[in-house]
Amino acid sequence: MMAALAPSHQIFLAFDFGTRRIGIASGTRLLGSAEPRATVRSGDFDAIAALVKTWQPDALVIGVPRHPDGAPHEMTAKAQNFGRRLAGRHHLPVFEVDERYTSVEAEAEGAHDVDAAAAALILEQFFREHP
Questions:
Q1: Nearest alpha-carbon partner for 108 in 117, 100, 99
Q2: What integer pLDDT is reported at residue 47 of this predicted model?
Q3: Of residues 87, 100, 107, the one with CA closest to residue 13
């Protein structure tokens, strides 16, 4: 599902997918940094659409969880399905990032909203991987 990264892709929304909650962050490629924005109930595509309308991103980034050895598991497929739904609804490129341990890292950093903070970590990882 990995889209091609174009120079015109400058503003991004990132998603930390979960079966109960989805953390969302925004960021710009120019600065290479991200800010936590919101956490919504999983499946609340209206709330996600409102954030897409507000931020007008050029592309979306989703965290895809995997086992410590990199092997996929049940949540891997669910996150990828979520990414396909986002692409279909918003007609934007969707990029995947391996997001092992982002929620743990956000908790360790004392984040107030762990899910949104994890989404920011996902987006910053994407920026590091795609300068």
A1: 117
A2: 97
A3: 87
Tokens at residue 79, please? 């996150």
Q: What is the pLDDT of residue 4?
A: 64
Question: pTM for the full model?
Answer: 0.89
| Amino acid (one-letter) located at 121 | L
Q: Rounded to an integer, what distance in angstroms lies between the CA atom of residue 100 and that of residue 115?
A: 13
Residues 6+ apart with CB under 8 A from 2: 95, 96
Distance of CA 38 to the CA centre of its chain: 12
- The string of pLDDT tens digits covering residues 51-67 is 999 999 999 999 999 98
pLDDT-derived band at 101 (thresholds 50, 70, 90) equals: confident
What's the pLDDT at 1?
47
Length of the chain: 131
Q: How far is residue 49 from each of residues 13, 23, 90, measured CA to CA in Å?
A: 11, 14, 8
User: Which residues lie closer than 8 Å to 43 by C-beta, 6 or more apart?
Assistant: none
Say if CB 37 and CB 60 are below 8 A apart.
no
